[in-house]
Structure formats: C-alpha cells, structure tokens
Amino acid sequence: MAYDPDNIFAKILRGEIPCTKVYEDEHTLAFHDINPQAPTHILVVPKGPYVSWTDFSQTASDAEIAALVRTVGLVAREAGVAEEGYRVLSNVGVNGNQEVPHLHIHVFGGRRLGRMVPKE
Q1: Comparing C-alpha atoms, which of 95, 22, 21, 87 is closest to residue 54?
Q2: Which distant-in-sequence residues (6+ apart) come within 8 Å of 64 by Cβ?
Q3: How far is it, in rounded angstroms, from Cα 76 to Cα 68?
Q4: CATH number, domain at 77?
Q5: Does the residue 78 lie in any domain?
Q6: Which of 72, 43, 74, 68 is nearest to 55 (CA)?
Q7: Ranges for the HIT domain (predicted)?
Q8: Catalytic: 104?
Q9: Which domain holds residue 84?
C-alpha cells in the first residue's frame, strides 16, 4: 500500500477536515473517531507521511517514535481508561483490514471490550 497524500488523516493534519482534537504535539495528533466503536475511541496519528507500523518503524526518527508511544499512553490516561483497561489497535495491510494508508492507532476503552479475534 503506497502513501496517499490525500487520505483522510492527511487532510485532517492539514486542517482541511475538522476533528475533535484531544492532544497535539510536534509529532502527533490525537482526536475522537467520528464513528466510535466504544465509549472511548480516540485515534492517534503521526504527523509524518507513514503508511503503517512497518513503514513507521523503519523510517521514523527516534523522536517521532517516542512521541507516538507517549501520546497513546497520555490520551488513555487523560480519557480516564488507563486504570480499568483499554485496547490499542493498528490495522496493517490488506489482511489486517487497513482502510486508510496513514498509520493510525485506535485507543478503545470505557467498557469491557471482549475478544479481539474469535477462536476458530
């Protein structure tokens, strides 16, 4: 999957599409998902043009990597889900059901989330 500079997250980062911002720093932006799948559903995106965890882990700077990891923890604490528990999810590629070619981390919480992948 190639990076598409016109993907929805790139447009949000450029300010072309509004979002309900939760947190922002030099390297990351966190905002509420417009179609939440749990009482807390926040998306965390790096500001750089990274397609996936694979791309990000290979090419992002140490500062960008640290900022993304710290932002995920910070938004979970600020949203009040850290103590009871939350789920962090990033879909990668076709088999991972990635829909937007920009790395994004879902932070889900606020209720018991159940199994992520059903046993077969």
Answers
A1: 95
A2: 27, 46, 48, 56
A3: 13
A4: 3.30.428.10
A5: yes
A6: 68
A7: 8-118
A8: yes
A9: 8-109
One digit per residue, pLDDT tens: the chain, 120 residues? 789 999 999 999 999 999 999 999 999 999 999 999 999 999 999 999 999 999 999 999 999 999 999 999 999 999 999 999 999 999 999 988 899 999 999 999 999 998 876 666
Distance of CA 58 to the CA centre of its chain: 18
Contacts of residues 79-85 at CB distance under 8 Å and 24 or more positions apart, as own/partner, are: 79/22, 79/40, 79/42, 79/107, 79/109, 79/110, 80/40, 81/40, 81/107, 81/109, 81/110, 84/109, 85/109
Catalytic-role residue among 41, 102, 104, 106 = 104
The pLDDT of residue 115 is: 83
Tell me if 62 is assigned to some domain.
yes
Q: What angle do CA 46, 52, 55 make, to 5 degrees?
A: 95
Count of domains observed in the chain? 1
DSSP, res 26: S
First-last CA distance in the chain: 28
